[in-house]
Amino acid sequence: MSGTEPQAAQGQEDPAAEQAPSSRPHTGRRRNEAAHRAILDAALRLLADSDGTPVTIDAIARTAGVGKQTVYRWWPSKGAVLLDALTDRADQDVRGPGTETGTLRSDLRAFVATTFDAAQRSTTASALRTLAREAARDPHLAELMQTFTATRRTALRELLSRGRERGELADDADLDLIVDQVYGVFWYRFLLGHAPLDPGAAERLTDSLVTGNAGA
């Protein structure tokens, strides 16, 4: 070796090389998180704007500004992407288990009110209406709709179960029926638009359900 070669080539440590491994993964994580979020946002936006036109992986990737293989890295199908997008938005917008105030009445009112409010935001409302309309003739969307509604039902049932464990609901209270009543009111008013989904409706529905199923 010549005496003019860099010290790192002579077995001495290069400080820049020591720092590189720690900085690259950090940057990669940020880039992955940004891509993941862009894909979810793109999927929800496309579903909202589709007006019955099938949403494809190609369209999701193009709208998100990523390659198709980047989408497939996290999801096996477009249905999985759309389901994740809807569930992610609902989890962000709706208060559920983990945000309890300590009383069933308060927790249920918050859950119902945020559910009503979130569903009326433009992108979410359009996406849900598209799903509800197209599920009748598209088995894939029908399955997606069933899975999504099941996740929301589970979240609400867990909240009710915690209230029953605290003695705020009767031991024999039918939690599934209460869940049906909440979402029955929601979907009926959401799809027909004959009455508002506002905080007042959320409060009256909550009071009716808690009072009618109160523990001893």
Question: Explain this structure to me?
Answer:
- With 216 residues, this protein is an all-alpha fold.
- It has 2 domains: 16-77, Homeodomain-like (Arc Repressor Mutant, subunit A), CATH 1.10.10.60; 94-212, Tetracycline Repressor, domain 2, CATH 1.10.357.10.
- The chain is 71% helix and 0% strand.
- It has helices at residues 15-49, 57-64, 68-74, 78-93, 104-119, 122-134, 139-165, 175-192, 199-212.
- Helix 1 (15-49) crosses helix 4.
Backbone structural class:
mainly alpha
Q: What is the assigned CATH homologous superfamily of the largest domain?
A: Tetracycline Repressor, domain 2
Instruction: Please indicate the percent range of residues in DSSP E strands (runs of 2 or more).
Output: under 5%
The helix tally amounts to 9
Question: Which of globular, elongated, flat, extended, rod-shaped describes the shape?
Answer: elongated
Helix fraction by DSSP (H/I, runs of at least 4) = over 70%
Task: Quickly name the level 1 CATH class of the largest domain.
Answer: Mainly Alpha
Please tell me how large the radius of gyration is.
Answer: 24 Å
Instruction: Give the uncertain stretches in residue-range form.
Output: 1-26
What number of structural domains do the residues give? 2
Mean pLDDT, to the nearest integer, reads 83
Instruction: Give the termini distance in whole angstroms.
Output: 89 Å
The topology string of helices and strands comes to: HHHHHHHHH
> How many extended strands?
0
Major β-sheet annotation: none
CATH architecture of the largest domain: Orthogonal Bundle
Q: Do you know the CATH topology of the largest domain?
A: Tetracycline Repressor, domain 2
